[in-house]
Amino acid sequence: MDRASALAALKSVPLLLGLLAPAAAQARVLGSDAEACIQRDQPAIEVAVQGLKDRTGNLKLELYPATEADFLRDDRDLLAEGKFFHRVQTTSPQAGPVTLCIKAPAPGRYALFVTHDRDNKNKFNVWTDGAGIPSNQRIGRSKPTLAQAVVNVPRGVARVTVRVQYLRGLIPSFGPVTD
After folding, report:
1. In total, how many domains does the chain have?
2. Residue 22 belongs to a domain
3. Bridge partners for 46 per DSSP
4. What are the residues whose beta carbons fall under 8 Å from the beta carbon of 149, sequence distance 6 or more?
5. Is residue 154 in some structural domain?
6. Residue 135's closest CA among 144, 126, 143?
7. What pTM does this model have?
8. Residue 21 placed within a domain
9. What is the DSSP string of 58-69?
10. pLDDT in tens, 84-129
11. HSE of 1 in the Cβ direction (CA atoms, 13 Å)?
């Protein structure tokens, strides 16, 4: 290869890297509903999960009716009453960005809750597990409110970022691992 050809080839490297970078930076969508967020042809919520304490256990998305009475109620009770409830669970990925997807039954208003089940016991352990809500407000020492968890889902896909919070501090309360 002559000098001119080598210089021409080097000049194209930044262009090629620029074309490849967006694909490499884009997170793989995880969970059993991932196809809904990839296809973008039905109501769903794409959730970028941030602030994980570690990559152990499972991550869960739970979608509730957007009413005070139904938010965070036991799923068996909601389903027994004929109300909507949907959950997506996946193993925490070992590295990289975390993006999960959950389908909604129709466009509308829903309440979303994210948990990091670090001990894999499928029951929320206040001492070890993490929780997150779309508003990303500090959860503190009480359960999150409906207003903190509401997501408006369009005909397509709503995108939200949820920062997971864990119990921390001298007077324990839920907050992000780093402020």
Report:
1. 1
2. no
3. 101, 159
4. 64, 71, 111, 112, 113, 133, 134, 135
5. yes
6. 144
7. 0.83
8. no
9. EEEEEEEESSTT
10. 999 999 999 999 999 999 999 999 999 999 999 999 999 999 999 9
11. 8
Residue at token pair 């262009």 = 15
Integer Cα distance of 109 and 88 in angstroms: 18
Average pLDDT over residues 61-83: 97
Contacts of 137 (CB under 8 A, 6+ apart): 148
Sign of the torsion angle spanned by Cα atoms 129, 167, 148, 38: negative
How many CA atoms within 13 Å lie on the side-chain side of 9?
A: 6
- Domain around 78: 28-176
C-alpha to C-alpha distance for 135 and 96, rounded to whole angstroms? 23
Average pLDDT value for residue range 28-49: 96
Contact 118, 7 (CB under 8 A): no
The answer as to whether 17 is a domain residue is no
Q: Is 78 helix (H, G, I), strand (E, B) or coil?
A: helix
**Cβ(114)–Cβ(151) below 8 Å:** no
- Chain segment 132-163, per-residue pLDDT in tens: 999 999 999 999 999 999 999 999 999 999 99
Name 98's Cβ contacts closer than 8 Å, sequence gap at least 6.
27, 30, 48, 49, 50, 52, 59, 92
Q: CA 146: distance to chain centroid? A: 17
